[in-house]
Design brief:
About 30% of the residues lie in helices and about 20% in strands. The protein is of the alpha/beta class and about 900 residues long. The strands form eight sheets. Strands 5-4-16-15-14-6-7 form a seven-stranded mixed beta sheet, with helices on both faces. A hairpin with a 4-residue loop joins strand 30 (about 760-765) and strand 31 (about 770-775). The protein binds ligand MGD (2 copies), iron/sulfur cluster (SF4) and molybdenum atom (MO). GO terms for molecular function: 4 iron, 4 sulfur cluster binding; metal ion binding; molybdopterin cofactor binding; nitrate reductase (NADH) activity. This is Assimilatory nitrate reductase (NADH) alpha subunit apoprotein.
Length: about 900
């Protein structure tokens, strides 16, 4: 049995995984017990990795305007189009838009080609939407983009503050580490700050459900309170920091006392007091922050407001303490190391600094260095819209879905002269808009490194052959660089060579001036590179990593001192109005990843949250005439989406939450990016994805239905979702206007061309009730059920299970259109445990009938929660209910 040691391609936790192939060629994925990030754990997404490696819709060959071409022709065409635009309009008329899901080696080459050879800094990345506020906050406070902490600090802490982080769902393995730490150390306290009550709050001793966007007030209040109550670390502040007095004055101005903070944040004064007391009286505090802080028009200030509190209390650089930005994507951190953002250079050097530009230029021997920062993501797509940027190459990201004001982004791509997209999937909303499509390798095939949230560099190694003509991103970039005439400077034959160059640049003329230094690896042999153990940068001369930064009280600013930043809190730019009375918050669900290109093809992962939804307070739903399970229209001046209604008291009144995941490939109109205004932080350029304002109203559906098919079909109706089931796709459909002819409608949806003789149907035109099934040979190929009332449609489970069978028995065939078997089986309800496929109803029943008291009891009885543990918070909620 062959085992490959590699790294999970999903989130920034960066868990080590072992991939095994058995004698029948079947792959299985297990956690790597030796990897310091996960120490033998994996979440539901990592556990299901083997299910998503065989993608049914791969982009396998280069295409120009839909025609398959050779690699030579594709690379030459990209080079020619880019070159002719550059010759006529200058280098700033072209751009790359890349991703924290590229490997460091790919990222390095993309950045080098654009900034050092094309001579523009118009390369930006989806990290702009993700980490750029944290990057800017780190740079302002520490002089360099540095995350001081280690994962072990979570275990050593006595207080963990989670701000704007739903770690239970988004960093599940770190959440499990915190759960375990709390179990072994009952003195460990957890505070969760989030307008929503998420699963993460289940771990918290205190949940502060503050008014959306008011975090800077809270942390300014804390700063002021720490100073007034004798919690300043005077020695550290005097020796190792600057700017405390001004920051304190600003804090006092905006958040003078607990009452004011409570009022502005809409919190109970006693809760604010409790948080301040906890922070003040606990020595070892880690403050974890994520998108609830970053994705804001004042995200950089919010980051600094919380870093200020760690500086004032001296809680940084020591075990169990520090501000800790959890990164989102698997290589968000690696992208920052190579300078993938438009306002960075490479190796943590500054593009605005002429000496740094000169240093990199000499190292690269580049003919034409970018002279200033390039366009940040939102501005970049606006420049494409206005025609200033005429060619764009998108790699490993889906901007037509994930950028704010996504309709305008689509208009921009439609107008753009030359859209090149490198992706591994043939159909995404962005790939569909490309003139030139370049097939990329993906996880399991590609080779290189990633860096996780605590600066640990880990290897990704291939265990699958390249499918079709797909190539790794650095190879594609190298070939285009060669076709542009830069072959001498891009001689790479392997990821290993690129990595060594990256390591060499990190130490070039460094001598301790830059923290990011992995120079000890510049001579790594290919075998050493392949066997590289997970290591935290920076490295010492012997290649030993660094667990924690700033232990010596030295920072990377000009003065060597950390900087306090004065923060004047600003509220989100969209303000509730009579027309748009709700704040729209967006984010993630447990088992889906971004725009569903990977998790959307896994039945197991699709079962947990299968449809796009809005979560809202039940009283708001009642007031707006909305019903649980009904469909809502959410709209503002930018657009409209239609999603399912879920009511929950975890949502504060006046706020809505919609997941970011659904694209046009999986839904009729549920892409929430349509509703997010292109409002950004003035420093970081990060969009405010958490605070749009909208109105919500019922969508009046006059018909409902579902269809199940072996092939992926086009959806139909004003509302639809495509959900992967084993051996089939299930579609939920609703529309405002019933079809005039349902049999014709059905044939249009289910048949490739014309009719099909092997077809059974039932039709009651007066009641708009229609049911049909289509067979190919003995197999059920597809079925469709339509009714005027959703409640009259049968349960889907039995029908879905028929697609897993080889054939259909006469009894099954005769009960097919009834939608249920003659003898009813058990309905297990919504999937809670994705590993063992255990449903909510089964769990509730077992709790009630067998008197289960703990999550361990549930595990013993049903296995639920005993593998990856991602569902443990939900099991605890079911027990509490
Ligand atoms: N399952 C899953 N995991 C993922 C991903 C995924 O797609 N799916 N993506 C990865 C990526 S790229 C990222 S960036 C991370 C993101 O990880 P997180 O940042 O943890 O996730 P989000 O759901 O985007 O947002 C976090 C929380 O911010 C809260 N929030 C909204 N407004 C405010 C506010 O004003 N103040 C505060 N304090 N909180 C607020 C939201 O209610 C939400 O619960 O997840 C990573 N992990
Ligand atoms: N409303 C709202 N919008 C958001 C957010 C939010 O919270 N709310 N979060 C933002 C954040 S934090 C992020 S990180 C973004 C994420 O948003 P995106 O980056 O747009 O989302 P993904 O679906 O991860 O897109 C990755 C693409 O890369 C492809 N791919 C996978 N592997 C490879 C490879 O090796 N090479 C190449 N070339 N392609 C590959 C996949 O098929 C997929 O099409 O969304 C942002 N947008
Ligand atoms: S926490 Fe889950 S998704 Fe994130 S790296 Fe680990 S296994 Fe992968
Ligand atoms: Mo992200």
């Amino acid at each position: 049995m062959h085992v490959t040691k590699t790294t999970c391609p999903y989130c920034g936790v960066g868990c080590g995984v072992l991939v095994q192939q058995d004698d029948n060629g079947i792959f299985s994925v297990k956690p790597d017990k030796e990897h310091p990030a996960n120490l033998g754990r994996l979440c539901s997404k990592g556990t299901a990795l083997a299910e998503t490696i065989d993608h049914p819709d791969r982009l396998l060959y280069p295409e120009i305007n839909g025609q398959q071409v050779s690699w030579d022709e594709a690379a030459q065409t990209v080079a020619n189009r880019f070159r002719s635009i550059i010759e006529e309009h200058g280098p700033d008329a072209v751009a790359f838009y890349v991703s924290g899901q590229l490997l460091t080696e790919d990222y390095y080459v993309a950045n080098k080609l654009m900034k050092g050879f094309i001579g523009s800094a118009n390369i930006d990345t989806n990290s702009r939407l993700c980490m750029s506020s944290a990057v800017a906050a780190h740079k302002r406070a520490f002089g360099e983009d540095l995350v001081p902490c280690s994962y072990e600090d979570l275990e050593q802490a006595e207080l963990i503050v989670l701000v704007g982080s739903n770690a239970a769902w988004c960093h599940p393995v770190l959440y499990q580490r915190m759960v375990k730490a709390k179990k072994y150390n009952p003195l460990l306290k957890v505070v969760n700050i989030d307008p929503r009550r998420t699963q993460t709050a289940d771990l918290a001793d205190l949940h502060l459900g503050l008014a959306p966007g008011t975090d800077a007030v809270l942390f300014n209040g804390l700063l002021n309170w720490l100073a007034e109550n004798g919690y300043s670390a005077d020695g550290f502040v005097a020796q190792s920091t600057q700017g405390a007095a001004n920051a304190l004055a600003a804090a006092k101005q905006s958040a003078p006392d607990i009452q004011t903070v409570a009022k502005l944040c809409n919190l109970a004064a006693e809760d604010v007091n409790r948080f301040f007391q906890l922070f003040g009286s606990t020595k070892k505090v880690v403050t974890v922050f994520s998108q609830g802080i970053n994705q804001s028009s004042s995200g950089v200030d919010k980051g600094n407001a919380l870093i200020n509190c760690h500086l004032l209390s001296g809680r940084i650089g020591k075990p169990g303490m520090g501000p800790f930005s959890f990164t989102g994507q698997p290589n968000a951190m690696g992208g920052r190391e190579v300078g993938g953002l438009a306002n960075q250079l490479a190796a943590h050097l500054d593009i605005d600094n002429p000496q740094h530009r000169d240093l990199v230029q000499r190292f690269w021997q580049s003919p034409r260095m970018a002279a200033q920062a390039g366009l940040k993501a939102v501005d970049l797509f606006e420049a494409i819209h206005t025609g200033k940027v005429k060619a764009v190459w998108v790699m490993a990201t889906n901007p037509a879905v994930s950028l704010p004001d996504s309709s305008r982004v689509r208009e921009a791509l439609e107008k753009c002269e030359c859209v090149v997209v490198s992706d591994c999937v043939r159909h995404t909303d962005t790939v569909d808009m490309a003139h030139i499509r370049l097939p990329a390798l993906t996880w399991g095939e590609r080779n290189g490194t990633v860096t996780n949230s605590d600066r640990t560099i880990s290897r990704q190694l291939p265990f699958l052959p390249a499918p079709g003509a797909a190539r790794q991103d650095w190879e594609i970039l190298r070939d285009v660089a060669h076709a542009m005439g830069f072959s001498t400077y891009f001689p790479y034959q392997s990821a290993h060579e690129i990595f060594r160059e990256h390591a060499a640049l990190s130490t070039f003329e460094n001598s301790g001036s830059r923290c990011f230094d992995i120079g000890a690896w510049q001579q790594l042999s290919a075998a050493e590179y392949d066997a590289l153990p997970p290591t935290q940068w920076p490295l010492d001369a012997d290649g030993k990593g660094t667990q924690r930064l700033f232990a010596d009280g030295r920072f990377f600013t000009a003065s060597g001192k950390a900087q306090f930043i004065s923060v004047e809190p600003r509220l989100p730019q969209s303000v509730r109005s009579a027309g748009y009375p709700f704040v729209l918050n967006t984010g993630r669900v447990r088992d889906h990843w971004h725009t569903l290109t990977r998790t959307g093809i896994s039945p197991r992962l699709s079962a947990h949250s299968s449809e796009p939804y809005v979560e809202m307070h039940p009283c708001d739903a009642r007031d707006q005439g909305l019903q649980e399970g009904g469909i809502a229209r959410i709209h503002n001046a930018l657009g409209e989406i239609r999603v399912r209604v879920k009511t929950s008291r975890n949502q504060q009144r006046g706020s809505l939450f919609v997941p970011m995941h659904w694209s046009d490939q999986f839904s009729a109109s549920a892409g929430v990016g349509q509703l997010i205004p292109a409002v950004t932080d003035p420093i970081s350029g990060q969009p405010e994805a958490k605070h749009a304002t909208v109105a919500i109203a019922p969508f009046t559906a006059r018909w409902h239905g579902f269809m199940i098919s072996r092939r992926k079909l086009k959806g139909e109706g004003d509302y639809f979702t495509a959900i992967k089931a084993p051996q089939a796709w299930r579609y939920e459909l609703s529309g405002s206007e019933p079809a005039t002819n349902w049999p014709q409608f059905a044939r249009g949806l289910l048949c490739e061309s014309g009719g099909d003789p092997n077809w059974i149907e039932y039709h009651d035109p007066a009641r708009h009730t229609y049911r049909a099934a289509r067979f190919v040979g003995e197999q059920l190929e597809s079925c469709l059920f339509i009714s005027t009332s959703a409640g009259l449609l049968p349960e889907r489970e039995w029908l879905v299970s028929l697609f897993e069978q080889e054939g259909i028995s006469p009894a099954e065939r005769s009960s097919l259109l009834a939608g249920k078997p003659l003898v009813a089986g058990e309905d297990k309800g919504r999937t809670i445990c994705a590993c063992f496929n255990v449903g909510e109803k089964t769990i509730r029943k077992a709790i009630a009938e067998q008197g289960l008291k703990t999550v361990e009891d549930i595990g013993g009885c049903l296995q639920a929660g005993t593998n990856c543990g991602s569902c443990l918070p939900e099991l605890a909620t079911l027990l509490a209910k």
